[in-house]
Amino acid sequence: MKKDTGHKSQQLSDFLNFNSNLAEHEKQIQAAVMAGITEQIDTDQAFKKVMGKTGKRTKTKKLIQQITRVAAILAIPLLVYSSWSIYKQFSESQKKIQLAEQEFISPVGMRSHVILPDGTKVWLNAESKIRYSVPFIREKREINIEGQAFLDVSHNKKSPFIVNAANTIIEVTGTSFDVKAYPEEEQVTVALQKGSVNLQTSNGVETKTTRMKAGDYFTVEKSTNTIHRQKLNVDKQIAWHKNVLVLDDTPLEEMAVLLERWYGVKVFITDDELKQYKFNATFENEPLNRVLELLELSSPKLKFTYNPGKINKTPGEKNYSTVTISKK
Hints:
With about 325 residues, the chain is α+β, with helices and mostly antiparallel strands. It is about 20% helix and about 40% strand. The chain contains six helices and 21 strands. The chain has a 16-stranded mixed beta sheet that branches. Strands 18-21-20 form a three-stranded mixed beta sheet. It is globular, with a radius of gyration of 23 Å.
């Protein structure tokens, strides 16, 4: 262990010498990256040392870097790595201390896989993002989630792992679980695959806490701050992170939202009467046209029409492909 720590320290020293001639913004990026990947040495001290080299009195800046983004092709869901890094500087107690914040985004029509500095593995569903401060490994590891994520948390008793999702806080030391907290949805859901977690919810007035064990599936009502235990199959709820789309007695309206996120399309239901239909099916790495074909075969009274989007040359505007669900 000492030999490895010495090696890491030497890497840090070489890093500082090598980057002495970089531009200021490049030094900031490299400093944050180095602080995030050092595992065996004190990351806080490493970060401070790097900051000493880059200068603490730099004026407030915001640097946005797109690391990786892969476009979906032919509406086939792909497992991609995408990240969006944001670096900020804040003033604190008359001292300008540079802090870094990293944000990973998974756009519509994509699912992403992220490995955090502590080794925790995170799968992000479409239209989801996580955010955390760098250096990450401190007295507690804390992240914010918007959307849906499956986490396989690296065990560390000395540094609890805290997840903030809407009005819900989840605290663990090492476990695997799924959390869904889309801003437009009225519920936060937590599905625990293994281990145990403390689930806490608060509306600013009242705080409620419960203990979850493996196999539990809980929903949290945002408006009423109530927690409910549901009798649902956890494996089906977390199958999406393996690129498997599961419809388990899923209402048509809910299925439409899943298709929109999963394939990056817009879905229209022409008749409210159709919303009573429910679907049971499992699709693994299936393209959209095949999924629509199978759904139509299983629902003789429904018609699924796909209309491909056109290339839009106007910057900033999106022209989505559409799926229309109607009566035959």
